[in-house]
Structure prediction request, 404 residues.
Amino acid sequence: MVTDSNTEQKILDAAEEVFHQKGYDGARMQEIAEEAGINKGLLHYYFKTKDKLFEAIFSMALNRMVSKISAILDLDISLDQKIDLIVEQYMALFTRNPNLPRFVLNELNKNPDEFIARHFNGDIKRAFAGFAVSVQREIEKGTIQPIDPRHLLMNMISLIIFPFIGRPMIQVVFGIDNTEFKKLISERREHIKRFLNAALRP
Amino acid sequence: MVTDSNTEQKILDAAEEVFHQKGYDGARMQEIAEEAGINKGLLHYYFKTKDKLFEAIFSMALNRMVSKISAILDLDISLDQKIDLIVEQYMALFTRNPNLPRFVLNELNKNPDEFIARHFNGDIKRAFAGFAVSVQREIEKGTIQPIDPRHLLMNMISLIIFPFIGRPMIQVVFGIDNTEFKKLISERREHIKRFLNAALRP
DNA sequence: GTCTATATCATGATAGAC
DNA sequence: GTCTATCATGATATAGAC
Prediction:
């Protein structure tokens, strides 16, 4: 796909912005066109339908969500190091793309079967299986407390993702503005690592 | 709670079902009417606009999300007991209403200012302030490790909410069906309590 | 209160000039 | 490739009979 002009890229950037923020149902082709600095006619020239454009955006988004964790879980490093890497990389990813997790989780939920079948390869399932084994090994060595690896993985992801999905509510409850929220997020990197290590220590 | 089989209640039940599942943008008045066993004309007779109907549903949903935690944080009981109550009550609430957290967090995110101003009373802010004090007290007594009360509260909510928002992805990664997912959730009640206690112990 | 029919409008998509 | 103009559909909302 050797695309000539950069119009296609401008469209993809605009579509990502709008879809991530408003979801498939809330997004308007008109708004995407405006955001890209073109008109609807040209938008449909590049992507025949809203569905095809969405598909391109969603596919990239889902890939960005799962590729990192598959790779990290596969590494031959200690559990402690895996936690560090996952926290660092995903906090950074979601800081750059605050709407990414909500978008992916939402759209996945609307059409679970369709999307999952189309996009999920077996990588992440295999990576988790390997992770479960390495957790079991640490438990047997006595370096961490006994724990179901599924709950452990969910806990890590939960702690990382929630602030981005719950941001508006968080800012109200804590009475903080955008600047203070960013500070809270940056502190949270270290907090999550400490918290997980404390929970796991024998 | 014996549901009146009067028309207004049937509409509210149907609207809750559809709005919670598809959000404001994805919901169709036609579908709500069908779900309620009436037609669009009558639906508009009871609720003049889609906005008004949505407002009724969202208001109830947000209230169900925050009222419990405000009440629990206000109780004069130990931190340990508060954690127990929050985990028990919210896991039960979300088990009965699996789409509630996604719905509320999503819609809140789309119009943060508008909704927050209209619906949030100061209860939860005050409750959190009290919670922060009691956490500080436990830290000083040495019964728990030092921790930022904001992160602690976020951690509790994170661990509870995520499985419901991330359900489709979770089932794929762990390769489990609906029955096994329900079992995972029921185990998770105790897991979260143990995990939080382990992380907090001095 | 409840229904059918219809008005109004927004949006995805196409046609055709340049 | 890019634009303007237009179509076709579907959704909210209203009017009016019963």
Summary: The longest helix of chain A spans residues 50-74. Chain A touches chain B through 52 residues (CB under 8 Å). Chain A has a mean pLDDT of 94.
